[in-house]
Specification:
Distance between the termini: 38 Å
Strand content: 5-15%
Order of helices and strands: EEHHEHEHHHEHHHHEHH
Number of helices: 12
Oligomer: single chain
Number of strands: 6
């Protein structure tokens, strides 16, 4: 059985898969299956496309889930690594054109099934999955880049773009006045809106640190990874303490942080 929920405020349909792998479902929710949920998602996707085609022919045609569809996965109820969770999300985005995959940290309850863990996963894990999800959808990253075989779980200390950049130092520094958009999007601290603004600025003059400062970017994080008209880092990218230099001071995770990043894409 697959339960489809609707958000009337946003006209969004959700067929929840609940757990990230078929093995997890067989273990904890054998009444559910990827095949059934996938079939529901495929049907919703087809209905959405059909509705859009009908409305192109006639604006008076009825709307069907105009905001698209989403799904939800529980994180931390099993030992499934982040790599598998992101791979499932990426396949769902590709196959069914989902608008969002929501990640919900597992929360234990009294008298819980003995097969379930006694503790919730750290809140920051859910946060890192949302960040990685954004990188997959809008920055051109692949799952295996963010979660390579030797590190199948996302770092809890570093955001996934910074963690990737530290593993691929040979690709930096990037010249903000010459690099293509796809390379700029991979600079830590440089989000989608910032990149598009830089591309506009450099049509008129060479970009400087002052230009970036006016864009209110996190320069401390970015400077070791970029070259500007008036800045060329020397040896910073090879520093053994680079992670310390560019990692913001630890603060309590805010529920508003993810929402802000979701709106701006600044990672």
């Amino acid at each position: 059985m697959c339960v489809v929920a609707q958000d009337p405020a946003h006209q969004l349909l959700s067929a929840n898969i609940e757990l990230p792998t078929d093995g997890d479902l067989k273990k904890l929710a054998p009444e559910k299956s990827f095949a059934v949920t996938g079939g529901t998602m495929k049907e919703i996707s087809a209905r959405v496309e059909q509705s859009r085609a009908e409305r192109q022919e006639s604006p008076k045609a009825p709307k069907f889930a105009p905001a698209g569809q989403s799904t939800q996965m529980i994180v931390g109820a099993t030992s499934t690594p982040d790599a598998a969770i992101l791979d499932t999300a990426n396949r769902l985005y590709t196959r069914f054109k989902l608008k969002r995959v929501y990640y919900s940290g597992y929360s234990p309850i009294p008298l819980v099934d003995a097969r379930l863990p006694a503790k919730s996963p750290p809140l920051v894990r859910e946060h890192r999955l949302y960040q990685a999800d954004w990188l997959l959808r809008f920055y051109g990253f692949r799952v295996e880049e963010l979660t390579p075989p030797e590190q199948p779980d996302l770092s809890l200390e570093l955001d996934p773009k910074l963690a990737w950049a530290l593993r691929r130092r040979e690709l930096f520094p990037v010249d903000v006045n010459r690099a293509p958009r796809e390379s700029l999007l991979r600079v830590p601290g440089m989000g989608v809106r910032t990149v598009d603004r830089i591309l506009r600025i450099r049509r008129w003059h060479r970009v400087t640190l002052a230009d970036l400062g006016r864009l209110r970017v996190p320069l401390t994080r970015m400077k070791p990874f970029i070259v500007t008209a008036d800045h060329r880092p020397t040896g910073l990218i090879d520093s053994a303490r680079l992670a310390e230099r560019v990692t913001p001071a630890a603060t309590q995770l805010s529920l508003f942080t993810s929402a802000r990043e979701a709106l701006t894409g600044e990672l």
